[in-house]
Amino acid sequence: MLKKLKDQKLILYERYRGFRLNTDGKKVAVQIIRKHRLWEYFLVEKLSFGWDEVHEVAEELEHVSSRKLVDRLDSFLEYPQTDPHGDPIPDSNGRFSLKRQVCLADLPLHLSAEVTGISDQTAGMLELLQDKEIRMGTRLEVRKRFAFDHSLEIKIRNHPPVTLSERVAKNIFVRDET
Fold first, then answer.
1. Beta carbons within 10 angstroms of residue 78's beta carbon
2. Domain 102-176 is classified in which CATH homologous superfamily?
């Protein structure tokens, strides 16, 4: 793969420092990210896939090379800002819009917040969150922190409180509603 990228003049090599993408390589990478995240959004929002099912399919679709198709897909989806996991979708010029968010593990007690991102997007993590009815846009608050293992008790409106491990809480990002 490195030879292929070098032949396409997309990487730089520095002795003892290794390889890194050059400016053109970064542009190509951002466009692949854009396509991947647009396809994930399409699969969830328009074809009713679960957020835990779309990564592999999007990996196949991200290699579609038609810029016209990707731009029309973006338009058809009404220019979404984030994918189903909360990751920003770059615009056609490769720009990302970043949002202010904090890790759930760092959210102060009794502060209402909205889930805006999931960093560990493995099927196992997404399945666990689905089971706990935590998804993008879920409003919740941290009710307790347990010193023993740093787990959290959270409350989601109209649901009984649930306990999340520190590992799970560190992979959920939220925006407070203040």
1. 7
2. Ferrous iron transport protein A (FeoA) (2.30.30.90)
Q: CATH class for domain 2-76?
A: mainly alpha
Per-residue confidence in pLDDT tens, the chain, 178 aa? 777 777 777 778 777 888 888 888 889 999 999 999 999 999 999 999 988 889 999 999 999 889 999 999 999 999 999 999 988 999 999 998 877 899 999 999 999 999 999 999 888 999 999 999 999 999 999 999 999 999 999 999 899 999 999 999 999 999 986 6
CB neighbourhood size of 109 (10 A): 11
- Cα–Cα distance measured from residue 138 to residue 93, given in angstroms and rounded to the nearest whole number: 31
| Non-local CB neighbours of 31 within 8 Å, separated by 6+ positions | 70, 90, 94
Burial of 15 (0-12, 13-18, 19+ CB in 10 A): exposed
